[in-house]
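Support request from a user on the community tier.

User writes: "When I paste my structure tokens into the form, the page sometimes reloads and wipes my input. The last time it worked, I copied everything first. Here is what I submitted, just in case something in the input itself triggers the reload:"
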């Protein structure tokens, strides 16, 4: 279906976080995203680029989300736009998830 393609996935991984520590309290949405990403790879995707959002403040980050996803896939965590994203995609190996920052 996706033989050797780059799949761009807008997934809802916005998760409740403990304000003082920044730790994720509930990983349900991330776990569901793992299923969707796995489906893409199982159907031939070369790389999956994930776009989502966390909260309403620009300083909120997906770094903790990336740490959880790293339990399942090789993850490249990068800016949301610009040359850094282009370079991450160009260098990505098969089976990599590229998570774009909030």
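"...and here is what came back when it finally went through:"
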């Amino acid at each position: 279906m996706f033989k050797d393609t780059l799949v761009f996935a807008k997934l809802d991984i916005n998760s409740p976080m403990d304000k003082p520590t920044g730790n994720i309290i509930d990983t349900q949405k991330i776990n569901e995203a793992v299923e969707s990403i796995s489906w893409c790879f199982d159907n031939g995707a070369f790389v999956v680029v994930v776009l989502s959002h966390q909260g309403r403040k620009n300083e909120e980050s997906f770094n903790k989300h990336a740490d959880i996803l790293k339990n399942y896939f090789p993850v490249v965590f990068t800016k949301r736009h610009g040359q850094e994203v282009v370079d991450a995609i160009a260098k990505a190996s098969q089976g990599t998830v590229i998570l774009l920052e909030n």
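Agent notes: The reload is a front-end session timeout and is unrelated to the input. The mean pLDDT is 90. The radius of gyration is 13 Å. Escalated to web team.
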